[in-house]
Write the structure tokens for this entry.
Amino acid sequence: MPRLLVMRAAHRDNPSLAAIPIILPSNAPSYALKWISLLLPDFHVETKALQDVLTVRRLLIPGWGSRFVYSDVVQDELELLTTPYRQEGIPRKRIFVDRRVQSYRILANSQALQDIAASYGFESISPENLTLEQQIALFASADDVIGEFSSALHNSIFSPAGCRVMAMNYITECQSRIGNFRKQRVGYILPREGPISFDPSIKGERHFEIDPATFERKLNIMLKRQ
């Protein structure tokens, strides 16, 4: 998505770039096409099998940054993208991101944490059940976001400056870098077992829990900070 935002900015300055097709592997995830359709509707997409041989005269490879450190172009494009979705004059949203996808890790007491968050006005949502536009609109109007460390929680990149984010578990620096980039406050609660990250030597699902008492105490600290 950040690469597409860079291309979007370049296309705005030079509309002729739309004549260059976007090449995707035939096994690209469906969301890749959805993002291209949303952000670069004027571009033609060609899918190629991995074993296909291509002869290319001119190749454009957009860059967006490195190690989750984003360029200023991405910042500007995010503001242009999210501003129309922000609903002014209504209370900001509090979101609990409910992650319901197959994975090597499962937050076993997610429902108990959702119930606690609900008592503080948080709405539980599953981003994978929403369209891209709905996801952008939801996070663009959020001041407080809670969720398991995941790509779903990384949707906070669409949230405004000052948004407070609580990540349960820690895997990479990605969420912190998003917070630094978007001027958001990010904190972490670790599982009782310590950080749960991918370990190829461990087979099957790994269930972990977040202590409910610690969660509520940290939630109160999060919401009291102005």
Remarks:
- The chain has two domains: 2-63, 87-224.
